[in-house]
Amino acid sequence: MSLLTNTITYVKQTLENVESGHDFYHIERVYNNAQLIAQNEPCNLLVVQLAALLHDIADSKFHNGDETIGPKTAQAFLESQNADPEVINHVVKIIENISFKGGNFNRTFNSIELQIVQDADRLDAIGAIGIARAFNYGGYKNNPIHLPGHDPKLNMTKEEYKKHRGSTINHFYEKLLLLKDLMNTPTGKTIAEQRHQYMLTFLAQFYAEWDGEK
Ligand code: ADP
Ligand code: NI
After folding, report:
1. Which domain of life is it from (predicted)?
2. What's the pTM value of the predicted model, to 2 decimals?
């Protein structure tokens, strides 16, 4: 069996009982979108595919915040497959850097393969899927869906905004609506723009319904 087939099987098995935000369906969507973006970029397709498949293999949230657990797990798996050391090194660097949260990793690493997988991962946090994942996460955390009068609208200052965390609608302003401007690739940007508009439509409808039919 090929390295790719083995990796798919391994990831599927490993993520079998994982919460739905980072389950294998998330990986499948990121994998598909990464391959779509890769069609328009000169890149090492195998590195893109492996990094997309392995990018959420172990979440630091469930390992006492240890941000090295994901990259280490991916490295150990790829070594067990006798993958090309250069490929392993690149995939590990992508996983370290894809959702940099302030750990000790080398912030300066960059490659087109990282940019592609990062775009694909970000696309899955916006649009209809992004909305579903956000409310799923908020439900899991028992957060309110909306805190009227508290959720920041787009024109809030940073200081005003910091006092008003907590609801899932708030997460749109904290993260989801910012993602379209962080996209790396032209293909990623185009898809993100359309998903962004969908979220704005959703929010407008949400507020209208919240305020009651007039
Ligand atoms: P990533 O997979 O990009 O590293 P996270 O693990 O932080 O992101 O989040 C996984 C999913 O949960 C994403 O779709 C994200 O938007 C959503 N999410 C994270 N934090 C919140 C929050 N406070 N409220 C609602 N959704 C959230
Ligand atoms: Ni992810």
Report:
1. Bacteria
2. 0.90
